[in-house]
Amino acid sequence: MSRLMINGGKPLKGDLSVHGAKNAVLPILAASILCDDGVSVIHNCPDLRDVATTIEILKYLGVSVTRTGHTLTVDARSRLGNHIPKHLMQQLRSSIIFMGAIVARKHKAKISLPGGCELGPRPIDLHIKALQDLGCKIKEKKNCILIRSKKMKCGTIHLAFPSVGATENAMLTSCLSPGITIVENAAKEPEIIDLACFLNAMGACICGAGTNRIEIHGVSHLHAADYTIMPDRIAAITYLCCAATTGGDITLHNVISEHMEPALSLLAQCGCLVEAKEHTIHIAAPSCLTMPPAIVTEPYPGFPTDAQSLFLALLTTANGIGHIRENIFSGRFKVATELRKMGAAIALNNNEATITGVPGLHGATVKATDLRGGAALVIAALGAQGTTEIENLHYIDRGYDNLTTNLTRLGADIHRI
Ligand code: UD1
């Protein structure tokens, strides 16, 4: 079992280029199966465990995928399967996104239910309802979902909540159906725009992505595309928090600052100098952070739930008393137990955390509890005095390409053993 050993207290300094967005590449890879007559080339694909699992799913379906550096070549020309078995579905919650892509290409799909998740219950009712609204017949049988789409129809899908995955499934399912489909109360996350841009580059006709009303004009055929994945805003925020907790001074490249406004504004309110240009962000942190106003997680453009654990770790040593309310995923505060082992003072009450800033954290042996919770422990360990040992690295590997090397280059004392 790999572990990370981090000797904290070293200010991070230097420049770093941020990798492509995990949450954009996963649905885009699923979308690549919609082309049956060419080879798509997708650039800026990070080398992550979730991407590797998605490639395994593609290969299981009969798609040929090759990686050269950060470029993936996807050839879905052969006769594809329409079934994803349990052992693959359970590795990756976002495998549910294949439901829409397989149905659009094969008109029927059989997929196992996605596995239990470390972030609390993550139902798929909105995905199912969106596909039913498009005319799909859906049955659940022995932990499998069977979907048939003999008579697809267009119309309006109203999402009861702006779910990212359900919005993506609705776009994938409808882009090859005749007529106009409208998704109301759609998620507005930048990754939705990236998926729409990729589908449009394949010949789809989708407008309104990034707003709460997306219009999909069905086309009869999609062709191969050459596409570059957007930068990972959550990885970028992670590195900014690493710099902030160590009193560091770093510049990030290959970012889209506009995607990170709530987090950048909070870092400035913590006392950091934040200079955001269109594609670079410079942060210079003070030796002691100020507690910012209360943080509330919300769908985009609000403060992202994926960055909540990162700020929870960061604020443990800020001066004052802080509050975080988690509105999206109930299991996001699991990391608080691990942060307490390092000396953090965090009180939990349902979906609210109260953080009483302490002068400093100390090293301890801790376990990653989920992907961003694991990254939060890295942030805490970089700022702590002494050595922290982080276990359960498979969670962190799901979302960060070259984390140890990148942090070492910025001056951290971090080793994977
Ligand atoms: C995506 C991101 C994840 C991020 C989340 C919210 C990917 C691969 N993952 O996850 O990193 O944290 O958006 O920004 O892109 N819900 C239902 N029923 C459904 C679907 C969702 O009740 O059918 C609820 C969920 O339980 C959750 C909320 O809606 O409380 C948001 O979920 P959703 O936006 O769907 O997140 P994901 O697409 O799973």
Low-confidence stretches: none
Biggest sheet, strands in spatial order? 22-23-1-24
Whole-number radius of gyration?
Answer: 21 Å
Q: What's the rounded overall pLDDT mean?
A: 95
The helical percent reads 25-40%
In DSSP terms (H or I, runs of 4 or more residues), the helix count works out at 14
In this structure, how is the largest beta sheet organized? 4 strands, mixed
Give the overall shape: elongated
Ligand roster: uridine-diphosphate-N-acetylglucosamine
For the secondary structure, the number of strands is 24
- Structural class, judged by helices and strands? alpha/beta
- Terminal residue distance: 8 Å
Topology:
Elements lengths: L3 E4 L5 E5 L4 H10 L7 E5 L5 H13 L2 E5 L2 E5 L7 E2 L1 H4 L8 H9 L1 E5 L12 H9 L3 E5 L2 E5 L6 E4 L5 H11 L5 E5 L5 H12 L3 E3 L5 E5 L8 E3 L4 H13 L3 E5 L7 H9 L3 E4 L3 E5 L10 E2 L11 H8 L5 E5 L9 H7 L3 E5 L2 E5 L8 E3 L3 H13 L3 E5 L1 H5 L5 H7 L3 E4 L1
Parallel strand pairs: 2-15, 3-14, 6-7, 10-11, 18-19, 22-23
Antiparallel strand pairs: 1-23, 1-24, 3-5, 4-5, 7-9, 8-9, 11-13, 12-13, 15-17, 16-17, 19-21, 20-21
The site of uridine-diphosphate-N-acetylglucosamine (UD1) has 21 residues, from helix 1, helix 5 and helix 6.
